[in-house]
Amino acid sequence: MGVCFSAQGQFQFSQSQNSQKKTLGKNSAVYQMNTDCKESSAVGGKPSPSGLPLPPKNIKDLQSNPGYENVDIFTYEEMKLATKQFRPDYILGEGGFGVVYKGVVDENVRAGYKSTKVAIKELNPEGFQGDREWLAEVNYLGQLSHPNLVKLIGYCCEDDHRLLVYEYMSLGSLEKHLFRRVGCTLTWSKRVKIALHAAKGLAFLHGAERSVIYRDLKTANILLDECYNAKLADFGLAKDGPSGDQTHVSTRVMGTYGYAAPEYVMTGHLTSRSDVYGFGVLLLEMLLGKRAMDKSRPCREHNLVEWARPLLNHNKKLPRIIDPRMDGQYTTKALMKVADLAYQCLSQNPKGRPLMSHVVEVLETLKEDGNAQEEVMANLHSRGKSVTLYEAAPSDSQGTRNVDGQRRRRPESGRSKSEASIDTDQYVSALVSDSDPESTKI
Ligand code: ACK
């Protein structure tokens, strides 16, 4: 099995032993799939299972499709004006795909254009994402509209230049706030809000009529506006979900180490439940304030899911592993609810994972609890009293309980009875042993 990484840590690998290696610039290599693992979506003209027109195969296809009327087409010259000639101090960040600049599209860029702050991603022609990912992004973000999906304002494709123009999300990525900033301002209630918004975005994508699998959920792909509203960004790996009596879509395995569902990594069979697993990883990272993969941690903690999932329903050990930066901000009941949700999302058995619509329901109740909690706090503070949000967590002999506080026996393996006994050790150790410490993208 070939496993390769880009500088971003994205992976793309095949189950084939006949894989052909193709180098794509610095630190990145791709194993091309053999034919038995080809992407199985139909192409050409007809509507796709999501109800959207099929992803355009090329630029001509894209431009002749009437489905993108809300997306502006910019010239490269306009992009230069919007970014002041791609000024280095306008750079917001850089990934394996290329550089992201901030910019403004206004009257000076195009006559009559209402001044709009934007983020402009210039895809690196040498990079991992070729036209295929660029087109997928235009296709999905250009046509799907939801408050929890980042808005694609336009694109530019001239000669070798491929740019995407998005709404500007002033607080940047969740990854920056959770892992890169010195003073983390992400309180418990902000994290719940962000998780809820990400869940709503995914639930929308998975919605029956327009089933789309996002495939690349991770903190770097969740962007925040000035009020910590969260939106999913980067649809380069998104795919139409299965349709009719199909149970899955067969794809080459792509995604990010530490986030990809075990059955997807092992079989290439993609379902919306793979996104649910990725969501579980995200919840875990937010609860613990730790990255999904980190080789600088002690060996047994390299893979966050492997190490922490068994502790999620252990009501004595759980509080000890929660991000200390949230100390005193949550109740035991709320913590157990989120931990139990993460536990279920991370089930080895895809069918044991909840639907995203259910995840939204559970997180909504937390938001309500949070509001009530804040009211209580405000009242107490106004009366000069202080309160601790921790509740004593009664424990049983196994030290485990579920969301509703009911006791639950934990099987010896740490796995729920409904879970298939897939041995993920093999795939996890393959991922860990091949990985570059800085890279997490498959
Ligand atoms: O964490 P950040 O500040 O937020 O740095 C990364 C960088 O670009 C590379 O991805 C930022 N970024 C990406 N898209 C946007 C956007 N639409 N608005 C604001 N910042 C963005 C991201």
Automatic annotation (TrEMBL):
GO terms for cellular component: plasma membrane. Belongs to the protein kinase superfamily. Ser/Thr protein kinase family. It comes from Eruca vesicaria subsp. sativa (Garden rocket). Residues 411-420 have a biased composition (Basic and acidic residues). Its EC number is 2.7.11.1. Keywords: ATP-binding, Cell membrane, Kinase, Membrane, Nucleotide-binding, Serine/threonine-protein kinase, Transferase. Residues 38-58, 391-442 are annotated as: Disordered. It is found in: Cell membrane. May be involved in plant defense signaling. This is non-specific serine/threonine protein kinase. It comes from the Eukaryota. PROSITE patterns: PROTEIN_KINASE_ATP, PROTEIN_KINASE_DOM, PROTEIN_KINASE_ST.
